[in-house]
Amino acid sequence: MSRNLFKAKQYATSKVYRSRPSELKGPEEEKPNVPQGIMTKCPDCGNIIYTKLLMKNYKMCECGYYFRVSANERLVMILDEDTFEEIDQHLTTRDPLDFPGYGDKLVKTQNMTGLVDGLVTGKGLISGTLIYIGVMDASFFMGSMGTAIGEKLARMFEKAAEELLPVIVFTASGGARMQEGIFSLMQMAKVSAAVAKHSAAGQLYITVLTDPTTGGVTASFAMLGDIILAEPGALIGFAGPRVIEQTIGQKLPEGFQRAEFLLDHGFVDKIVTRDNMKDTLAVLLRLHQT
Amino acid sequence: MDLTPWEKVKLARMPIRPTGLDYIELIFRGFVELHGDRLYSEDRAIVGGIAFFDDIPVTIIAQQKGRNTKENISRNFSMPHPEGYRKALRLMKQAEKFHRPVICFIDTPGAFCGIGAEERGQGEAIATNLAEMMMLRTPIISVVISEGGSGGALALGVADKVYMLEHAIYSILSPEGFASILYKDSTKAEAAANDMKLTAQDLYRFGVIDNIIPEPVGGAHNDFEYVTGKVKEAISADLKELMSFSLDEMLERRYQKFRNI
Ligand SMILES: [Zn+2]
Prior knowledge:
The structure holds 2 protein chains of 2 kinds.
Chain A: H1 4-7, E1 14-15, E2 39-41, E3 48-50, H2 51-56, H3 71-78, E4 85-87, H4 102-113, E5 119-126, E6 129-136, H5 147-163, E7 167-173, H6 181-200, E8 205-213, H7 215-218, E9 227-230, H8 241-248, H9 259-264, E10 270-271, H10 277-287
Parallel strand pairs in A: 6-7, 7-8, 8-9, 9-10
Antiparallel strand pairs in A: 1-4, 2-3, 4-5, 5-6
Helix pairs in contact in A: 5-6
Chain B: H1 5-12, H2 20-27, E1 29-33, E2 46-53, E3 56-63, H3 69-74, H4 82-97, E4 102-108, H5 115-119, H6 122-135, E5 140-149, H7 150-154, E6 161-165, E7 169-171, H8 175-182, H9 189-196, H10 200-206, E8 211-213, H11 224-244, H12 247-259
Helix pairs in contact in B: 4-6, 8-9
The complex binds zinc ion.
């Protein structure tokens, strides 16, 4: 990726050929489970797996471990082949606080990940049904939400409300983009507003919560779906587990803030395994066609 | 005299600083407190009720710090649980039904982080308030009186008009939390406070808030009647303006206000 991406001001719409997952590389510390090379080791059971085979198996290990999935990989898993049309592909942040060091770190991360920010939005088909889809990528600043993600989501929901189309969002986020301060916080209100507008237009919104979904994303659009799905074992919460442990000074119970915990407490409609996700979404979409 | 951001942080947290109930007492008449979310429990970190503003009945919702240690404990240091936000929403919907404007006073270090808060859906409670406040068909004015911390503050902050006291702060996170995440050192809170741009003056410049309420030298506690007088003036003028719009026009303006940030 070139430096020009960061500078690009035009908001282009174009049909993009998704790069293959193996071509994408990210910063080591933020991408613990991304396959690099021919073989990949499962951090849970220690199994050595062919990377190609892993992708075919939706990046699930036999032991039940879920590797993190990039936005590109997710689109490949969910959409009908070659139907994705990306929108606002070059939309990037204005660095609204002029935060020390942020601009440089952004360019570095953009070059390393091949992403402009931590969310890809666009239009595509799921088993023949036209939808808008947003997919977050936790490898970009931990999937944290700043103005770029907020603006892209708001635009997508507004377009979907106008065109009377459903929206599906895959969440993966460590919370707010600290370097964008109060602007990051305000994106929660902005996106929730656009979700409400889309909802008022009578359109379906499905969220799929993936590991990890926390902070400002949980406290806004992640929890506003008409239907909320989650991947097994995904960490989902408002506060991160470490913050809670520090606050209350005790160890957290086993399974706390996992998808199953949220299902038990009434905050998730259904837990869906990765290999069944596309079919489940297709059925839900058909059930909302009139 | 200009205060540094860190001096403002310290001032905003001073126990002597007036709290939500102090504002309610001086600005409104005949306050009747209403309790509970009708779902789980009563959260004393948020006070809600009805009162007269001049001759107009309004719904008031205030995050409430304790005025002494004992009260602070019962109010959980103004860190609400989900039931607090759900109580607030219940009262806002009630205000909508009876065509009452809603006045919110924001003063919280943040939404509470704990096991029960997560079990009962802190994220869902805040998210629902953001979406519902955006669509609420009655005027909403929110005043950040001291500390506006994170989504826990924003959950009462989706309003037609947002004010901050001159020395109040409003931020994504406490400076200590920010320093510990970004600088890996919670003792660098002062530096964080500078970088975060969390003062009323910063936020007014950014267009995130609409009005700054002036404070006397040394802070609001030094002449509280002056401060409440100024808050009253601002609410009075803005309610007049907001009530001159049709509801649809008011909602469109509210939407655009946040849409453009
Ligand atoms: Zn394994």
